[in-house]
């Protein structure tokens, strides 16, 4: 669907659709015995928006009665299942205020390294040293496996080919990366 560009055609389509809507709402109200109303602001014959709404039923008091019943029901059920824009904006404002308060509290209670005692700093250093040692052991282990693989010879003594020896699980692509990191050159077997 697109907007009808020609104003006369648009107005003619509006009037036809407006009549159709009135028929449908009348049928719904009559056949189902429900209270219904329609308020429609549309263009006038000159293509500008009409200042007077088109309403159904045409009796303004009936429309106002239906709207008033809706407002009463909404107030009864308010908070149970419906929200309007003002409720959402009020909630957002309250949430933003709470967020700002929490952020200000965090800024006030934020501690730096200067806030730690000597014992706490030594404990942190000890933990970092242990982590550093574990990482260094992993690196040394990888270097050892890479050396073992780089020294494995196949065929003649001057051609070195990396193989997955002793079930280490390290394959040529892993080995190439590790050897490059250690400054070693990998020689590939050519068939």
Q: Could you walk me through the main structural features you see in this protein, from its secondary elements to its overall organization?
A:
The structure is a single chain. Helices cover 59% and strands 3% of the residues. The longest helix has 33 residues, at 118-150. The protein has 191 residues and is mostly helical. Mean pLDDT is 76; it is low at 153-172 and 186-191. It has a two-stranded antiparallel sheet with strand order 1-2. It contains five helices and two strands. It is elongated and about 90 Å long.
Task: Give the SSE layout.
Blueprint: H1 7-32, E1 38-40, E2 54-56, H2 60-77, H3 85-109, H4 118-150, H5 172-181
Antiparallel strand pairs: 1-2
Strand order of the largest sheet: 1-2
Uncertain segments of ≥5 residues (pLDDT<50)? 153-172, 186-191
Category by helix and strand content = mainly alpha
The helix tally amounts to 5
Number of DSSP strands?
A: 2
Write a compact overview of the structure shown.
This protein is mainly alpha-helical and 191 residues long.
Task: Give keywords.
191 residues, two-stranded antiparallel ribbon, 5 helices, elongated, disordered C terminus
